[in-house]
Amino acid sequence: MRVLITGGGGFLGQKLARALGQSGRLRGQNITALTLADVVAPAGLDLPFPVTGVACNVAQPGGVQSLMAQPFDVIFHLAAIVSGQAEADFDLGLQVNLFGTLHILQAARAAGNCPVVVYASSIAAHGGEEPEVIVDGVELNPQTSYGTQKVMGELLLNDMSRRGMVDGRGLRLPTVSIRPGKPNAAASSFMSSIFRDTMQGQTSNCPVAKDYPIYHTAPRTVIANLIHAANLDGAVFGTNRCINLPGRSDTVAEMIAAMTLVAGPEPARRITWNPDPTIQAIVKGWRGHVRPEKAQRLGFATDASFADTVRWFLADDIAKAS
Length: 322
What we know:
About 40% of the residues lie in helices and about 20% in strands. It is an alpha/beta fold. The strands form 5 sheets. A 7-stranded parallel beta sheet has the order 5-4-1-6-7-9-13, sandwiched between helices. Strands 10-12-14 form a 3-stranded mixed beta sheet. It has a two-stranded antiparallel sheet with strand order 2-3.
């Protein structure tokens, strides 16, 4: 069982690699090799199977073809330009989020073994004229370039799965919070930093009001769901291989209250409240309430509370964050 993770140097890619190392198996087989691909070659990990870090820009078709010259059995496609950056630089978003996904899918098709492809899409696929509470099967109406590019990737994944070229599963990830490390260019970055940074003694600004609802999931949960998607038989997804992942809907105030319950009152006092119209224009086009009934029927995990997320961050990531 040969496995590829694009975006393998990112925090989700690294956590996914370590989780695969703990089990050593995928789809009922032993993992024999893992390749981590990113713009800068990820460092090797000490896992019970060989791990190779490769420098690869998915926007460059030649590099992708070289990366995938030998067929992979399972591909986790996590590489992407994040929401705020894709909105600020339309062409870069196209090159990485759309054409990069096309390059990965075309190389997987050319391998001829119909590999399992787990594609990280986004809840940003929803918005606009959709209902306030998203249900399965609703017409997608993204209101950002990032969301639009992710939807185009979903359509490619569906069509190539229908044709037997790949065995795809597209997962619309809720906002992943609490992300470790430093803030990034994602419009949703504050949804982690107001918790991560303040629990580490730093200030952090919240650019939206306390009653803004966030559809979110914890890193532990999303990693479990990525692996679960790979292990499922593709046929159980039906004709639409792309689903809304389970998440929690909580307001900013409710999430802060949960953090206070676990970490005490000091972190919340380090939050500043300066509105940012640019971020507000992006995130207010997203949906904060989703009923992911199909994903729940298929056994995908749901977070019980944001307090658990805070506890997991303190256990898993606070010592690693900077």
